[in-house]
Amino acid sequence: MNFRNWFLFIFSVFFPMTVSAAPVTADPPGVRVWELIELTFEAEQEYGNPYAEVTCWVELEGPAFSKRIYGFWDGGRLFRVRLVLTEPGNWYWRSGSNQPGDNGLNEKSGSFRAFGWSEQEKLQNPNRRGFVRASENGHTLCYADGTPFFLTGDTWLAASTWRLPFRGAPTAEDYVPGPGIGFEDAVAFRKRQGFNSISMIAAFPNWECDKHQATYADSAGIYLRNAWEKFGYQVEGGELTSKDMRDEYGNRPFQMSEQHPGVADFDRIIPAYFQSLDRKMQYLSELGFVPLLETVRRDNCPAWKAYFEFNESYARYVQYLISRYGAYNMIFSGIHLDWIPEKYSLTADEFNEALTRHLEKYGPLPFGQMHTTLINNSTYLQFGHHTDCPWLTMHSVGNKPRDHRVSTALEILFNLQPPYPAINFEPYYTGWDHEINMPGGERPPANSARDNYFSRAQMYGSVLSGGLSGHVHGTAAYDITSTGEPAGMRPHIWDALLYESGKYMRHLRTFVLSEGDRYQALQPASDQIVPGKAPGAPETGLDGWAYMMRTPDDEFALLYFENRSVLPVLKGFIPETEYLILWFEPVTGEWQEPVRVRADDRGNLEIGAFPCGQNPSSADHAAKITKY
To answer: In DSSP terms, which residues pair with 254 in a beta bridge?
Structure first.
């Protein structure tokens, strides 16, 4: 990126398109579709707590579009509404609020003339194709213009905080992660490796490096946090305290409660914290990323429910994030529900109730983005499906277990009706020394061949069990132990970024998209691999299993064979028909020369031999089969 382009980019980050409230004119300004527009309003009245007292919005009308777009308080008397125009043509807006006497917020109006992007401009940034949504058949994701979107994400859950600071400076094209890493550095590095998404939690309200343990309760027995440890920082009794999670300028996301020590005042937000997050979301958008943005980690919520009117307060916060970031291409997660322990979390039913309340009060995300959650096993298992959880539009699995049992959970999600996209948000994490991250009870050294293999097996096994939305790479440094802190059971972020497993995500995407959008029609067919499991291959491991998805016409299939798989017969192909088998190397992303095979009169295919030449295999292999 040259200096001029970098200057223009930084200008757009700090000064996005802002439009003052003004009357409709005969000559509306021209803007691009899917480009963030910010309307700014200044209230005439003073409010004691604008975050909780004032709800503002614009009624937006345009081609095939008529919705209320909610705004947010941004400090002082300022309120903003962020929106995008989804189709070329004429658009009109009119403002309103729940404060009818405030002339600064109500009855303002304006118009725009929207223009589209050229194909070349869309190639420069795929977010110009429109926001990601479910594909026509419900099983995959696509941009608004129908172009397939296969998510290749990374797990940087603390990236919203100072731990990965926004530096406002260019990153060298050959940058290699190291101490002093900034947000832009990490994103640019992963983009070079083929990533198009990161997962991050918007805020950690009750977390602080203080005199209390990482997990502690107040005098009433209400647990305030079950936080990630700040390695090297011990408190009384020898336990570690919590990682501190402010922004780059020391701002917390909420004011702290005067009545309940150590508890955030969840009804009093601090806009400055989210202004820091604005810069990161804008940068991701400019680089063509589609982040998974999560609300909070579940451990903040027992205190939230004990001391506040949870359903209304939580719904307000969810809407604040949607209002602030809903004009970006993102996937939204209503709660980071990685674990549901009795003391350190609310139940799935309690979160379902609060998120349903949000939907009833504010409606779905206004520009069509998906609403999901990161989960401890399966969103279907925890929330149900469709009318059971009307806010949920995308299913997920993750965290527990991190072995073959994920495959069963994903196949269940794939077969639900109506169909929803599905993904594994928390698979095996390379480099993480933890008991839940030990397939078959095995804990290999960080970044060893075996460690990276486990990550690779979860990539291909998850996608080819029905997780066709894409995959999120498990990064051991998800908590982002940063510069100036010692590492512990999780490594520094710059070390984790250099693990070999990160390189494999590009190859996964190459493999899945090798026939363009044909992968969108794939259906689970692992039961047509005989045998599908090597003798003695455990359900709790990641060795010896084989996976296949195939199109209904039996003309195209993708397969993955784990390490120690046995040569199978593939059933269900078109009898007496010739096919091509193309072996794919998951480590290097290289294809072998195609091999022609013929299905017998029962539709059975013999694959000959694994590329490694061994049976059982001494490595993992992927393959594509197409009708000749």
So the answer is: 269
pLDDT in tens, 303-342: 999 999 999 999 999 999 999 999 999 999 999 999 999 9
Under CATH, what is the fold of the domain 525-627? Answer: Immunoglobulin-like (2.60.40)
Asked if 461 and 562 touch (Cβ cutoff 8 Å), the reply is yes
Domain boundaries of the chain, sorted by first residue: 3-116, 141-519, 525-627
Please check whether residue 586 is in contact with residue 623, taking contact to mean a CB–CB distance below 8 angstroms. Answer: no
> Residue 446 in contact with residue 126, Cβ under 8 Å?
no
- Name the amino acid, one letter, at 315: A
Task: Indicate whether this model's pTM tops 0.90.
Answer: yes
Collapsed DSSP state (helix, strand, coil) of residue 502: helix
Coil, strand, or helix at residue 192?
Answer: helix
Indicate the SS3 state at residue 97: strand
pLDDT digits (tens, 9 = 90+) for 193-232: 999 999 999 999 999 999 999 999 999 999 999 999 999 9
Return the CATH number of 3-116, one of 2.60.40.10, 2.40.110.10, 3.90.550.10, 3.30.1330.130. 2.60.40.10
| Stretches in the chain below the pLDDT threshold 70 | 1-27
* Beta-carbon contacts of residue 195 (< 8 Å; ≥ 6 apart): 152, 153, 154, 289, 473, 502, 505, 506
Does 3-116 match 141-519 in CATH topology? no
Distance CA 258, CA 242 (A): 21
Q: Is 74 helix (H, G, I), strand (E, B) or coil?
A: coil
Tracing tokens 């990482």 back to the chain, one arrives at: 214
| Selection from 398, 401, 443 nearest residue 540 by Cα | 401
Cis amide leading into 126 (omega within 30): no
Helix (H, G, I), strand (E, B) or coil at 506: helix
What is the 3 state secondary structure string of 441-470? Answer: HCCCCCCCHHHHHHHHHHHHHHHCCCCCCE
